[in-house]
Amino acid sequence: MEKRPDSLSWIRMNIFLGMTFREYVKSNLTISNGIAALILSVAIPIMIYRLVFGLGASTNLTDTNPWGIWIGVDILCGIALAAGGLVMGTAYYIFGMKQYHHFIRPAILTSLLGYIFAVFALLFDLGRYYRLPYPMVVSYGLTSIMFLIAWHFALYIMALLVEWSPALFEWLDLRKFREWFSKLAVWATVFGVIIAGGHQSALGALFLVAPGKLHPLWYSELLPVYFLLSAIIAGLSMVIVESSLTHRVFKKQMEHFDHADFDRLTISLGKGASAALVTYFFLKLFGLAHAGHWQLLNTPYGYWFLFEIICFVILPAFLFAYGVRYGNVVITRWTALLTVVVIILNRVNTSLVAFNWNAPERYYPLWTEVVLTIGIITMGVLAFRWVVNRMAILYDHPDYESMH
């Protein structure tokens, strides 16, 4: 029987990557880690300050503008960009597209961390943050959209944990658990599709209850559909961006990787994103025609709306189609990055720019709000890197290759 390593040996091999503690610390003295440490050295005290002294002392939020960038960016943008696990899980587990095998684990990990840190960010936006678990165990607001979103966030994180757990159990060398949870992954995906589709659209439904506050060009009965479809677009684009970056940053793990096949699959993801963008454009056109707000296009807000649609919907759709038509993976990757910016702009427009558009008092984030958001993003990136450096996320674990 193979002898298992003792705990100290396991820690050295799996936590410190085969190095001594001194060697491990020395290997982490890099410029990128220095920048991350600088960001967190400012962001973490701000987080503590916010929790101790409240929203009034640490933000520019008011009763007129109770939602700022912690909702508009951290939640609305973060959850949309975390839809890669939903898209790839559906393609791989439900539709049997096994050719996307090497995309599935990075996408699920990105989604899991995205949701975890979105909930973490929510702590700082809630006045009584210590009541975050109340919708779970104390107060059931069964008619509230917020109640649905809270429960869906919690349930979807559980589904993502099940989908990600085979990589964890491979790392811990727990074969039996790995086998059990691998069989559960497809059911977790089916459950996750229902849950994620519900709360992605529910985030758009939040704005349906405030028709007088959201500018008519952005307000539509189709907002839940817009949010769901834009999340799918964001998921596809984020998978392309994330996979392109990780294959550069972690290229030592890609020594035996078929890069030609990877490029071909990247282009196929761009094809799906292009089709989704075209669908989104025609739905926006239908919503505009249904509301009959054509005259508002000849206003400053109308010009900004047209800029968003033409430059950040039609243009990416065309560029994706061009990349697919001519097999140009470089254009596909850059267009995916542009589309990520598109989704961020759209969510910021809906939640901040076009929201309370006619109010005399406008919201501008305090510098502490911006730094805290950057700090949370930095934590997410560091967590992703920590996991990828230790677990079989970008490659098949050599001891479990036959089980994939």
Task: Spell out the blueprint of helices and strands.
Blueprint: H1 7-14, H2 21-27, H3 31-53, H4 55-58, H5 69-81, H6 84-94, H7 101-125, H8 134-137, H9 145-172, H10 175-205, H11 223-249, H12 259-291, H13 300-325, H14 329-353, H15 367-388
Helix pairs in contact: 3-15, 5-7, 5-14, 5-15, 6-7, 6-10, 6-11, 7-9, 7-11, 7-15, 9-10, 10-11, 11-12, 11-14, 12-13, 12-14, 13-14
Summary, kept brief:
The chain has 404 residues and is an all-alpha fold. It has helices spanning 7-14, 21-27, 31-53, 55-58, 69-81, 84-94, 101-125, 134-137, 145-172, 175-205, 223-249, 259-291, 300-325, 329-353, 367-388.
Structure explained in plain terms:
The chain has 404 residues and is mostly helical. The protein has one domain (7-397): Formate dehydrogenase/DMSO reductase fold (Up-down Bundle), CATH 1.20.1630.10. It is 71% helix and 0% strand. The two termini are 24 Å apart. 38% of the residues are buried. The model has no long low-confidence stretch (mean pLDDT 91).
Mean pLDDT rating: 91
Spatial separation of the terminal alpha carbons: 24 Å
Which spans have pLDDT < 50 for at least 5 consecutive residues? none
The outline comes out as globular
Over all CA atoms, what is the radius of gyration? 22 Å
Q: Biggest β-sheet: count, sense, barrel?
A: none
Strand segment tally = 0
Structural class: mainly alpha
Summed up, the helix count is 15
The CATH architecture designation is Up-down Bundle
Count of separate structural domains: 1
CATH homologous superfamily identity: Formate dehydrogenase/DMSO reductase domain
Order of helices and strands: HHHHHHHHHHHHHHH
CATH top level is Mainly Alpha
The CATH topology annotation reads as Formate dehydrogenase/DMSO reductase fold
Which strand-content bin applies to the residues? under 5%
- Percent of residues in helices comes to over 70%
